[in-house]
Design a protein that fits this description.
The structure is a homodimer. Chain A is mainly α and about 700 residues long. Chain A is built from 32 helices and four strands. In chain A, strands 2-3-1-4 form a four-stranded antiparallel beta sheet, with helices on both faces. In chain A, helix 5 runs parallel beside helix 24. The radius of gyration of chain A is 29 Å and the shape is globular. At the A-B interface, helix 12, helix 14, helix 27, helix 28 and helix 29 of A face helix 12, helix 14, helix 28, helix 29 and helix 30 of B.
């Protein structure tokens, strides 16, 4: 590939992106697409309508870019939550570090690479891209100090930026916790593995245990019921009511069953539960236990309760909206087996995934394709088709296969038994990240080089050299990957192809007029790994093939605008991990840095530059030490909340006299079923239950009360 | 090596061991050796004298064996503490599992090995040992099911035994905690990283913090002082007293300074500390904080106190006797760096250790030795000397070098910054264990085989095959290792050569009559790794070369008796980890099992037995799953104590009305300096301070009060 081709490809992709973005700026102004591009607003405000047909609606405009640019961090935090802010911080961090990298690499490393071999150069536009990579510097050259210096500058800048980001995010997290309105989840502990005592319900056992050991702080509790049995109970009640009140008259029942029967029904169920008649058989060995203070709840969640570690397992409860009810009833004893099984399954998936991709990609070798499908032979012989098939098809196939990965990983995380949406999403994010690093980076690097993939890792000591040989040659692939996959993914994200298509079908084929919000939450499990993998490509290619950096910078800047816009308008924030993604980002960045340094070691070794080699070793050690320091300094605050903070928050609420109000809310905070009866859910959360959520802010009474 | 030679060697070693044991049974009856062989009794009872000169004193007798055999677990627990019991349990476990292994391997595997190749055998006594190893079974033989079956039986028995041991030890640990008399350490939290506020002493800052956040449970505290400055303070006080009371008369002071001055001195220091005149400059940012209940102390120790994780770092305090005062003043911020530095140092030590050993062992190649020291040439040409030098010298040199390892590792653990003797010893134990497994097993296995040591591990996938080739050929070396190093180490342990020698010098050269106890504590950091490495040899050789098993069994049985005797008579138990060694033992045993299975995989692969190979893979997985299960089920109780247990203990003491008494003890429990003044250490622990400990049971007031 020569520079000309690269620039052409860049031009085409820029053209496509600009076109798609302009298309977006038109589409978003159409009232029929309101639910696609303003899902969050519909969900929260319900009423907004755009102005009627006018000329302005069909002219592309950059207004959304201005709006996205101007949005402050406070607004993002308010609208998208802590996680959205952390996600945007990844982009900002990437922009900063790759600006530094671009400056030093384009002005120092690139000339060294270009003039590395004293040979007559072709005209720059037709020069092969390899001329710009480190492969062009001759062996034993004294100019490797430039690469080493650039590596030092990049590593140090990255560490300094990472340090300040970690510091500011943990400070923000703390502030977010301190300033948040009282949430039921802060006072609630999820207890699992309640022991079964003969002749006693789980509820009784639990009451006895907590009233005995935590008499001073225990408030009440809410059992978790098996949803299957409760549904049965509900239908039983329905039948009972049917035969009781309505005396066999089916018609009468049908008329009644609109509003009042449901209420009756529900009261009956509540009465059932109260009487304990049926509950004993429907209770799971899990419950939400409410405490009088945050500190008490936190203490209970941190400490081993019983000398059998698999009984009375406690952890702080997720928020109501964050709960994955279906996993709450899983027996706690199973979880470790599930975790191991899923770990193995994920690893197997990572390797097995290669097989169909390789087979299908092999088919795109034209000869095989022509052999397999002889009738295409004439068609395939055309030059344009030929180029298209060999050039684009492999990466399109890879892309299509890659789209199956996040749902699979999400499924894995569900089976693993997470009890919160946010925890499940974070776990899926980690899995997708590992998968992408393996499949986008390593598999491409190693299959591109001469060495057989599976043999590559049998020899541990040769890995740096293998990577060092492979990465510069694969740099042109990574550049096109950034151009196509990166920029295209942003345009697709903006246009929301799939929801747009669904909306079209609904509006123009099914003729449904009403705008129902689609309740999308931000797909951290696909976007965080995507951005981090581009970061990995940027670091590893920076001193090897600096030409990638400008394209990456454009990706990150555009990404920053696009994701800001999406967070503002499209996605709802129903649940939040409180910034738990940052430690993942930090570790992934350190991994990328160390990998870069190891590859540099390999390159300096191959190119016989002992000085640069020697200077890089302390850099690896310093980077690892820095990581350990951050792990000591910041990570504990992401795992635990400091006692001091919790006690202060409790005191503040006590002084404000808000405690009574909070206790009131607690009773109804974790109602499991969609009850419309105000009797059973006292504090007025009317539309509860997962499948009835329509207004996410109406669910959390605290948000409604105080924001 | 043939069977004859092995049996001769065994005979010689049995002879030596019997002789040494008989010698021991005589030596222990000599009154002059009382302090060597009855150190613990001297320390605790002080008065016992053996009967005067009689004939019986010079006749070997097995009475100590009977006594050791009859000692019950309760006695061991009472005398040696939980750790001693755990250590003996390792031996009992080893006896059990290797009895099973010996039965199945000698009666099933050994005949299969011996008749493996259909070749005319020599007479059994002159047959090479290789005939008895798995190497003798021909490729593709159908008899490998026997080895596979034996492996299954051994693995399953080991897992079942491990499970019940873990269960019973965690139960014992719990019982030990519940039934123990109230200890000050249970109510005390060691706080480090107290922040420095301008114009305030650490003590004031601490009081303010705990009185604010833990008002209901905070009792008092005791600062830690820099010992250097306090020594200076003490000498200053001495001078002051000298110039004050004694008016410049040096002689008068000298007379006075026997008893009374010391008391005065100490009162003065105590007054100094009380007045806070000097204390501000001598305080470390560390303190012991006392709480009203065990539960409160435990909670404080478990929870992150401040949102800066390196301030207010809390953990449960070790017991007074267990404290390593010198490490208490280390700044907490340094510790992570120390840990990393020591980790690197230990790894470097493991590899660098090979160099002198190889060099010196190389010298024992006779030609080089004769060249280096030409005057020895005539001497070395004699056959007996030749055999001695080539046969014994290498292993003697290895042994001598190995003796330097435990002190080095102990030094490493000290530098690492452990604040308790027991924690330091456990950490040293882990280091020595890794070192021994590496140096005794892997280095010998891999240097004995053709493959170069350093290249061996560059190829990950070939490791099973390499080990499979090497282990059977090294089996004869391991057998002689068990005979010499194992049995000899037990005899040496029994005779206590070094203390005996010191005692001889003291009694017969320096002519000191008095028996002072030598205050030895059980060297877990050398003995636990030793026993575990023999276990590793037993597992890995079991199906490869079953002849090793009888020798190992003798070692474990003898070891059980010898160590029981030593715990009863020689070693004191000044401090205790409460059974924390068992998780180490469990993990090491699982490691040995999995290594055995991997080597078996390698052997079955080389010998082309796909069925046996296929059946071994699930065994590896099952073993790892079993380990994970145990980690889930038992390990948490070794890390934390359950809240339930602590609350019950607190209630029991409250009901008994013992709380006041306990609080009284707390005030004086952690006095840092050897004070003889009853004013400053109120509860009557008169002989405090590390260098003055004479009677360990007098130190812990609770033990004295209640046992």
């Amino acid at each position: 590939m020569d520079l000309n081709a690269l620039l052409t490809s860049a031009g085409i992709n820029i053209g496509i992106s600009v076109a798609l973005i302009s298309l977006y700026s038109i589409l978003r102004k159409q009232p029929c697409n309101l639910s696609v591009y303003f899902g969050r607003k519909i969900a929260s405000e319900r009423v907004r309508r755009l102005d009627p047909l006018c000329f302005d609606r069909f002219v592309p405009s950059p207004s959304w870019i201005v709006k996205a640019w101007e949005t402050s961090e406070e607004e993002i935090m308010f609208i998208g939550g802590m996680d959205a802010l952390v996600f945007l911080r990844i982009l900002v961090f990437s922009i900063r570090i790759f600006s530094i990298a671009a400056i030093i690499c384009l002005f120092l490393v690139l000339p060294v690479n270009y003039y590395g071999k004293e040979m007559p150069h072709k005209q720059i536009p037709t020069a092969s891209l390899e001329v710009f990579s480190i492969g062009n510097v001759k062996e034993g050259s004294k100019w490797f100090w430039a690469h080493c210096l650039a590596l030092y500058v990049i590593s140090f800048s990255a560490c300094i930026l990472l340090y300040f980001e970690y510091k500011s995010i943990s400070k923000m997290r703390l502030g977010h916790i301190i300033e948040s309105t009282p949430k039921p989840s802060q006072f609630t502990v999820l207890v699992r593995g309640i022991p079964r005592l003969s002749g006693k319900s789980y509820s009784d056992t639990l009451t006895k245990f907590f009233a005995n050991y935590y008499a001073s702080s225990y408030l009440s509790h809410q059992m978790v019921y098996r949803s299957g049995t409760v549904l049965k109970l509900m239908s039983d009640t329905e039948k009972m009511i049917k035969s009781g009140c309505c005396g066999g008259s089916v018609n009468a029942f049908k008329i009644l069953s609109s509003e009042e029967t449901v209420k009756e029904n529900v009261k009956e169920i509540a009465r059932f539960a109260d009487l304990g008649v049926a509950s004993r058989y429907n209770e799971c060995p899990a419950a939400f236990v409410f405490f009088k203070t945050r500190y008490a709840a936190f203490i209970v969640s941190q400490v081993l309760q019983s000398s059998n570690p698999r009984l009375w397992v406690t952890k702080l409860a997720p928020e109501k909206n964050d709960l994955l009810w279906s996993n709450l009833c899983l027996p706690y004893r199973q979880l470790w087996l599930r975790k191991i099984a899923i770990l193995i399954a994920a690893i197997v998936f990572m390797f097995v995934f290669l097989i169909p991709v390789t087979v299908v990609q092999g088919l795109t070798q034209l000869e095989q394709l022509a052999q397999a499908l002889p009738f295409l032979r004439g068609f395939l012989n055309k030059k344009f088709i030929n180029q298209l098939v060999t050039g684009y098809l492999p990466s399109v196939i890879l892309m299509l296969f890659l789209y199956t990965v996040p749902p699979t990983m999400m499924l894995f995380s569900t089976v693993e038994g997470y009890v919160s949406h946010s925890g499940r999403k974070k776990s899926a994010c980690l899995k997708v990240l590992c998968f992408n690093i393996w499949n986008v980076f390593f598999v491409n690097v190693l299959s591109g080089s001469i060495i057989n993939q599976l043999n590559a890792f049998s020899s541990v000591r040769d890995i740096p050299a293998i990577l060092a040989r492979a990465v510069p040659t694969q740099a042109s692939f990574f550049m096109t990957y950034v151009l196509t996959s990166g920029w295209a993914s942003l345009s697709c994200e903006l246009i929301q192809i799939f929801p747009l298509f669904c909306n079209m079908v609904k509006k123009f084929i099914l003729r449904i007029k009403e705008d129902s919000p689609n309740n999308l939450t931000f797909p951290y499990h696909t976007e965080v790994p995507r951005v981090l993998v581009f970061g990995l490509l940027g670091f590893t290619c920076s001193i090897m093939a600096p030409l990638i950096l400008p394209f990456l910078l454009i990706y990150f800047i555009l990404g920053n605008l696009v994701y800001r816009n999406q967070i503002l308008h499209v996605y709802e924030s129903k649940y939040d991990t409180g910034g738990q993604y940052w430690p993942v980002v930090h570790n992934a960045t350190i991994f990328s840095l160390v990998l870069t340094q190891i590859i540099a070691l390999g390159v300096f070794g191959i190119k016989r530059s002992p000085v640069a080699f020697g200077f890089t070793i302390p850099l690896v050690i310093l980077t690892l030490l820095f990581n350990e320091y951050c792990r000591q300094r910041f990570y504990p605050t992401f795992k635990q909340i400091a006692a001091q903070v919790l006690i202060e928050m409790d005191r503040r609420d006590e002084i404000c006299g808000r405690m009574e109000e909070i206790f009131q809310q607690l009773h109804s905070a974790y109602c499991q079923f969609a009850l419309t009866s105000p009797d059973s859910c006292k504090a007025g959360n009317i539309n509860e239950g997962d499948h009835k959520i329509q207004d996410p802010e109406a669910i959390n009474p605290c948000v409604k009360l105080e924001t």
